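Appendix B.2, paired examples.
Example (i):
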Amino acid sequence: MKKATLIIGVIGADVHAVGNKILYRAFLDAGFNVVNLGVMVSQEEFIAAAIEADADAILVSSLYGQGELDCRGLREKCDEAGLKDILLYVGGNVVIGKQNFADVEKRFKEMGFNRVFAPGTLPEVDIAALHEDLKLDEA
């Protein structure tokens, strides 16, 4: 069975690299193929990498609070690029200030993200969600 391929990175002008490195190691250890784009990644770079790698999912991180602005339009750009069915996950500190997470999650889902993870979510939660959404345990 083909290993699922993930594109990960920190979107926008965000330079927070530690969480990205933790996720990279956790996804590798969980058996995924992982393309880590690092920090300060544009929407176009996520999409180009997903096309090149024939990726199953794009996982966007943001810690500097501007994720909501940086992520707007990503689903539409994915659709236009032929990535209509790609899973889109986002997590971290994706908005400015303390906001009700249910409201934040709703806004990101309305932007086309399949899953939205709160700050401090453990990698195991992401991994379980990937297994569920990519139906990796079925075969």
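Example (ii):
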Amino acid sequence: MTASDWKKVFNQLNAKPVVKAKFLKHCKPKDRKTGIAARKCERCGRFGAHISSYGLHFCRHCFREIAVQIGFTKYS
């Protein structure tokens, strides 16, 4: 189960509190502090190629799409 899929399962278990408690005890993946799955892009939700400079938190794809709108300029 990937880092994004377990939240979908968690939403399905809201109707079953006993099963939800057991899931949280045994199956929930740990919160990531380092590595590729620690941060997600705020715009599209990708995990890799994360630009966190200036507090942006975008992946490189989204940054290239909206860089001019934010105020960044390309010099070369």
